């Protein structure tokens, strides 16, 4: 069971990983947006991969695919709430995989939120700098981080990666109840590596020893009965012979 000190140490490690990834990702996002605004002119298209990816500067007031263009302030508020929730989830989880994914999602949401605040002429209604043109949509590096985080979280959920300590303990109990308790019967399993399994092996050995003693005791009792029966048979044969000899002597 995880102690309080070890739990706090792991929490500090996860927070440090979250902070490092989020900061680096935010810097990359903001630098690429700065480069796009200084390099790309309005209406210019630079082909990177024909029919797959090109560079085109667009200022997007909405979300992905231009959705919510008339409610930029609402999208900004949702982004604020999402950032707070992601930080809270990072504190709650025990998984480093989830921590990395939450950091990427935080960087993506906060990176676009910076644009909506920095370029706003009203209440958080600024436009996001997009420049990655996929043909069907135009996005930025922050959107890439959000997509990677979303796909990664779905994979973790499907794979059953434990999110919290309670989930981990529940999975361990289910594992012990299903297959875990049978491992000591496997010749390839080293029971000495686990005190619980070693204890089970010792108890099994004691039970086997007691069973062997009972069997030996039963065997000795059976042998004793056999010897008694053999002696009784011998005595009865000797008595029969003595009787025959007496009858023969009387007839003579």
TrEMBL record:
Keywords: Aspartyl protease, Cell membrane, Hydrolase, Membrane, Protease, Transmembrane, Transmembrane helix. It is an enzyme of class 3 (hydrolase). Residues 174-252 are annotated as: Disordered. It comes from Bifidobacterium choloepi. It catalyses: Release of signal peptides from bacterial membrane prolipoproteins. Hydrolyzes -Xaa-Yaa-Zaa-|-(S,diacylglyceryl)Cys-, in which Xaa is hydrophobic (preferably Leu), and Yaa (Ala or Ser) and Zaa (Gly or Ala) have small, neutral side chains. It is a multi-pass membrane protein. The active site is at residues 130, 143. It is found in: Cell membrane. Residues 174-187, 200-240 have a biased composition (Basic and acidic residues). This is Lipoprotein signal peptidase. GO terms for cellular component: plasma membrane. Its main location: membrane. This protein specifically catalyzes the removal of signal peptides from prolipoproteins. Pathway: Protein modification; lipoprotein biosynthesis (signal peptide cleavage). The chain crosses the membrane at residues 12-28, 70-89, 96-114, 134-163.
């Amino acid at each position: 069971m995880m102690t309080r000190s070890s739990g706090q140490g792991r929490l500090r490690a996860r927070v440090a990983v979250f902070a490092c990834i989020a900061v680096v990702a935010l810097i990359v996002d903001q630098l690429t947006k700065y480069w796009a605004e200084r390099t790309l002119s309005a209406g210019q298209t630079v082909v990177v991969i024909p029919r797959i990816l090109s560079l085109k500067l667009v200022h997007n007031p909405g979300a992905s695919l231009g959705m919510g263009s008339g409610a930029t302030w609402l999208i900004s508020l949702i982004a604020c709430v999402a950032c707070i929730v992601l930080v809270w989830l990072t504190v709650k989880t025990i998984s480093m995989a989830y921590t990395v994914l939450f950091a990427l999602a935080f960087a993506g949401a906060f990176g676009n939120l910076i644009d909506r605040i920095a370029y706003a002429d009203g209440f958080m209604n600024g436009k996001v700098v997009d420049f990655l043109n996929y043909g069907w949509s135009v996005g930025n590096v922050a959107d890439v981080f959000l997509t990677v985080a979303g796909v990664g979280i779905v994979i973790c959920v499907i794979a059953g990666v434990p999110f919290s300590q309670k989930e981990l303990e529940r999975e361990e109990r289910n594992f012990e109840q299903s297959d875990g308790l049978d491992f000591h019967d496997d010749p390839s399993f080293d029971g000495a590596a686990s005190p619980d399994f070693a204890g089970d092996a010792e108890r099994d050995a004691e039970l086997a020893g007691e069973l062997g003693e009972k069997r030996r005791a039963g065997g000795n009792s059976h042998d004793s009965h056999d010897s008694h029966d053999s002696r009784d048979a011998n005595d009865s044969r000797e008595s029969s012979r003595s009787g025959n000899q007496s009858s023969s002597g009387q007839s003579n």
